[in-house]
Amino acid sequence: MNKILVDTKIYPLEIIKSTAYKFIDSTYIQLKSAEGDAIEVSLKSKMDKNNQNNIGGEFYNELLNNVLRIKIAERNKDIRKLIVQQALYAAVSNKPYDAGDNNASYQDDPLGIAVPWEEKYGEEN
Questions:
Q1: Model pTM greater than 0.70?
Q2: How far apart are the first and last CA of the chain?
Q3: How far, in Å, CA of 4 to CA of 125, rounded?
Q4: Domains of the chain
């Protein structure tokens, strides 16, 4: 069994638990409180006995991945909120959100995209 100590000042308990959940299919996991602000994570591979040495490193890498994912989510929270607001506005009003041209219509086709294939390229193509 591979035991590692994880500092909860660096990796919050929520991150540690979500990381442990990712390993739950392939690894036996035990979380215990340790001295100070640490959590002892015991890891034992369910299948590969040779993977015991690597599993702690993989766990630390996944901790970093989860911390970064949460930080990016926090940083982009306002952008996601704006995108959802615009999508909901379009769904409720039955018209697309348009910040600029209020006279735009779905029937306008300046690029000729709505032209049928036969008209654009002929019958033989």
A1: no
A2: 67
A3: 66
A4: 2-77 (3.30.70)
